[in-house]
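Protein modeling request. Please complete all fields; requests missing the sequence field cannot be processed.
Requester role: graduate student
Desired output: 3D structure, token encoding
Chains: 1
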Amino acid sequence: QVQLAETGGGSVQAGGSLRLSCAASGRTFTRYVMGWFRQAPGKEREFVAAIRWTSGATTYADSVKGRFTISRDNAKNTMTLQMNSLKPEDTAVYSCAADPSPSLYLINWRLEGEYDYWGQGTQVTVSS
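Delivered output (128 residues):
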């Protein structure tokens, strides 16, 4: 059973930075794609970023490209999301997710339905 646990959420002023971590356990994640999604109040959950565990290939939502960086530490089974230049519109609950059978096409890594395992989420609040 795969377990995912996010840490690192909090409150920050616009322009600030936060670093989220996702600790993964229960399986060998060699072939997985791991992703970050977020859900703001009253809105649907949306894709943020994803990374392939083996190759390190990444893809980002246009809204965060150039500000957020996704990475992973294979030895620690940990994925991180470094968020810089945060904006009030980044306020949301951020969740990490794992896809054990990822598509070859990066575009599909943006699809919520591709992911089988989800963390509980961590709140990020950016004030203006």
